[in-house]
Amino acid sequence: MGRILLVEDEESLRDVLSRYLEAQGHTCEFAENGEVGVQKVRDEPDGFDVIISDIEMPKMDGLTFLRRVQPYVESSTPFMILTAYDEWRYAMEAIRLGACNFLQKNPFDLAEIHNAVERALELRQVYRLRHDYRQQLEIELRSKTRELQHTYDGTVIGFAAMIEGKDASTMRHLFRVRDLCRLLGRELGVPGKRMRDLELGAMLHDVGKFAIPDEILTKPGALTEEEWVVMRRHPAEGADFVQRIPFLAGATDVILCHHERYDGAGYPQQLAGEEIPLAARIFSVVDAFDAMVSERCYKAAQPASVAIAELKRCAGTQFDPSVVDAFERLLPKVEDLMQDFDSRYRAELEAMGLGQIEDRGSRRERIQKAS
Length: 371
Known about the structure:
Layout: E1 3-7, H1 11-23, E2 27-31, H2 34-43, E3 50-54, H3 62-73, E4 79-83, H4 88-97, E5 101-104, H5 110-164, H6 168-187, H7 192-204, H8 214-217, H9 225-231, H10 234-242, H11 252-257, H12 278-293, H13 304-313, H14 321-329, H15 331-339, H16 341-351, H17 363-370
């Protein structure tokens, strides 16, 4: 038995049809015109098993009503129309718009109505099964997508570790900047389809250093001007590399532009202001913050308040002021994320099969041992 919405302006016709349907065990609700019908459907978009509507009605005709409720009931609720003999052309238009059947009125053929409603309820069951099946598929797809993304992240992080010789502290830095970029990207309205590119760029920002000679990367003292010329090639080298890999190509903006400065004094292209892609401007702020608040072998960790003050001091020169402001607004969430980081980091690293990378030592240490 079904719950049926009757949209009919003639009370006598509503009474005849509803009494018959209720005698068959169905429940009926009424709308005296299309406007009322639209409101009822909006209030309960999946609450009716069948909708039956007249064509000729005041305020809003049946075809307009069907068009208005189509987004709410499409592939969900069977829609049938009532039509007089001389209204068959409207019936054809209704079928084209998605109505599943039409019923002739004046007079009603009660046997035909019974059969039509039964077929509509069977169709409703098909709609429900299809909806449930799609939902299950979507759940499974989301799960598989998460698994695939996890695998990709493991590949990306592992690749960065192999190429750059990441030690434990730098591995943690990659995970933190990825998570902080995601947080700041949401605050700044980065579209979902670009969020993944931002995360990949954060994880692979220095991948271009694979092309830089070890004697420059591991040099303990200051670099000469000639060595800096070589070092400054790594953004372009990294961007050229990832552009050749389809699932990494979206990371290009961050990799190529993460050393650009808001005042145009950065490299490799001396971009300024909003010429710098938003993803790179986000990463620059996050990367600097994480570097300041993290303990390294050569420095102590700074409090978040000190790091924020330094970001604000450099806003307008090194950093985009609007990105710094957004990051400052997020500081409580940032601190929560940082506080809960270690347990999530260890679990994710283990799930990716990358625990062994933490024990490899830094690139400089391995080169020194080898020599």
